[in-house]
Amino acid sequence: MNDDFPKSDEDWRRALSPDAYQILRKKGTERAFTGRHLNEKRPGDYLCAGCGAPLFSSASKFDSGSGWPSFHQPRTGARIGEHRDTSHGMIRTEVTCGRCGSHLGHVFPDGPRPTGLRYCINSASLDFKPKA
């Protein structure tokens, strides 16, 4: 439970679809090239599917070819947590929502300029809000 966003595990189960629960709360992942936001091209903002916190802007989205929505940086002011992840025999950096603690995906140092980062994020972790 995150102190900023107190919800019990049962509350999360009721609020999320089974797939979203598995990804956001149990650190799962969706299969590559299956996420609903992978090919989204409209301008807008990507919000945490768990709590609605603004996380990424479409202006930083790029086609990484990885099979997941990818961003070169979070939105200005976004609360993003980064944590060492040694699961699955790899060393990676997990990305979480800083408000509710939900798992979003991972960040890698192989992205485009200007940051050189690739935030590889599960579509199920995100809601998209198109610009009006």
Describe it for me?
By secondary structure, the protein is mostly beta strands. The protein has one domain: Peptide methionine sulfoxide reductase (Metal Binding Protein, Guanine Nucleotide Exchange Factor, Chain A, Beta Complex), CATH 2.170.150. 11% of the residues lie in helices and 30% in strands. The strands form 2 sheets. It has a 6-stranded antiparallel sheet, with no helix packed on it. A 3-stranded antiparallel sheet has the order 2-1-9, with no helix packed on it. The N and C termini lie far apart (34 Å).
Topology, please?
Layout (H helix, E strand, L loop, with lengths): L8 H7 L2 H7 L19 E5 L5 E4 L3 E2 L7 E2 L8 E6 L6 E6 L5 E6 L9 E4 L4 E5 L2
Antiparallel strand pairs: 1-2, 1-9, 3-4, 4-8, 5-6, 6-7, 7-8
Keywords, please?
Metal Binding Protein, Guanine Nucleotide Exchange Factor, Chain A, mainly beta, 6-stranded antiparallel β-sheet, 3-stranded antiparallel β-sheet, 132 residues, 30% strand
Brief summary:
The chain is mainly β and 132 residues long. It has a single domain (9-30, 44-130), classed as Metal Binding Protein, Guanine Nucleotide Exchange Factor, Chain A.
Shape, per Cα inertia axes: globular
Largest sheet: 6 strands, antiparallel
Number of strands: 9
Which secondary-structure class do the elements indicate? Answer: mainly beta
CATH topology: Metal Binding Protein, Guanine Nucleotide Exchange Factor, Chain A
Spatial gap, N to C terminus: 34 Å
Overall residue-averaged pLDDT value: 94
Strand order of the largest sheet: 3-4-8-7-6-5
Number of helices: 2
